[in-house]
Design goal:
By secondary structure, the chain is α/β, with parallel strands linked by helices. The protein has one domain: TIM Barrel. The protein has 15 helices and nine strands. The chain has helices spanning 17-34, 55-64, 83-96, 113-119, 123-126, 130-142, 174-183, 191-194, 199-209, 233-250, 261-266, 271-282, 289-303, 317-330, 333-340; strands at 2-7, 38-41, 70-77, 101-106, 166-171, 187-190, 221-229, 285-287, 307-311. The longest helix is centred in the N-terminal third of the chain and has 18 residues, at 17-34. It is globular, with a radius of gyration of 20 Å. Residues 1-305 form the Luciferase-like domain.
Length: 341
């Protein structure tokens, strides 16, 4: 099973959002040394929870300071932007790191409605143009002409080059799965958003409706999963409390900085809130490195996924680094990376 990293540049209490970006740069270098296949960064706006507003810029910084790992977006929220501009950005990134750039595309706003309009004054109809945007972007990013009769058919996205970013469709519903199938693109299901609900249906729709393309001859599925590894299960349970408290707020529409386990322990929760957090614990993947590796392998096997991208959000950056290290060791990534080196 191929393992990758998803990073949201999580904002935490006691540190600035700018520090979260620098922690992402450091974690990417560690992920490469550990043998992870990809390092994907997310896009969120006007959020006190995530600092990653411009994945294309963060990708460039990571690509310039790594040598092997694929780097990409998970994803660029395409309705906010002109397809040509996104194609140009990722053509530049492909020039920086040829053969290592992934362009993951999503349709969700990654923000509240007002912020979506601030990003694109036509936000009320932009999502409806998602398939047409993908059609045009695929042509521009690969150096092909747009469809006959298109007013921008002769416009090119520079810089041209011999390699092309690998385009993915990301989603947490059947819609994204169907779009990925129609265009013959690899598909990543956002398991961490739905806690797995709807994953089987979306992946089945993707596989059933898949049409081979120049990029991909057969369906290719990844799932992005929240998971946490620690040296002991007890330590993993303690670190998990930050995620559970954040999840409680998220489900109320509150996107706040991630609290430390000590801050969570000091907060007074109602019985109903504690019950909600316990329910979150029951659907979380956590434990020792070996336990997490087994759970991820079982999940991927059950869904027929070819890859798993792991999102780990904890307050302590050293604990997050340790989590990815333990998982890499338990999955055999570290030894493979040493052999490759």
């Amino acid at each position: 099973m191929r393992l990758s990293v998803l990073d949201q540049s999580t904002v935490v209490t006691g540190r600035t959002p700018a520090e979260s970006i620098r922690e992402s740069l450091a974690l990417a270098r560690l992920a490469e040394s550990l043998g992870y296949a990809r390092y994907w960064v997310a896009e969120h706006h006007n959020s006190d929870s995530q600092a990653g507003t411009a994945p294309e810029i963060l990708i460039g910084a990571i690509a310039a300071t790594t040598a092997r790992i694929r780097v990409g977006s998970a994803g660029v929220m395409l309705p906010h932007y002109a397809a040509l501009k996104v194609a140009e950005q990722f053509r530049v990134l492909e020039a920086v790191a040829p053969g290592r750039i992934d362009l993951g595309l999503g349709r969700a706003p990654g923000s509240d409605g007002r912020t979506a309009f601030a990003l694109n004054p036509r936000a009320d109809t932009a999502a409806d143009q998602f398939p047409a945007q993908i059609r045009d972007l695929l042509a521009w990013v690969s150096g092909q002409k747009l469809v006959d009769g298109h007013p921008f058919r002769d416009v090119r996205a520079q810089p041209a080059g011999p390699t092309t970013p690998e385009v993915w469709i990301l989603g947490s519903s059947d819609y994204g799965a169907q779009v990925a199938a129609y265009f013959g693109l690899p598909y990543c299901y956002a398991h961490f958003i739905t806690e797995g609900r709807g994953a089987e249906q979306a992946i089945d729709a993707y596989r059933t409706q898949f049409r081979p393309s120049a990029q991909l001859a057969a369906p290719h599925v990844a799932v992005c999963v929240w998971a946490l590894a620690a040296d002991t299960r007890q330590e993993a349970e303690r670190l998990l409390t930050s995620r559970l408290a954040w999840r409680l707020g998220r489900n109320r529409g509150l996107f706040e900085p991630l609290m430390s386990p000590d801050e969570v322990a000091a907060r007074a929760f109602s019985d109903a809130e504690r019950a909600h957090m316990e329910a979150g614990r029951s659907v979380s993947i956590y434990g020792t490195g070996e336990e997490v590796a087994r759970q991820l392998d079982a999940l991927a096997s059950g869904l027929g996924a070819d890859e798993v991208a792991v999102l780990t959000t904890v307050h302590d950056p050293q604990a997050r680094r340790r989590s990815y290290t333990l998982l890499a060791e338990a999955s055999g990534l570290t030894s493979a990376a040493l052999v490759a080196a």
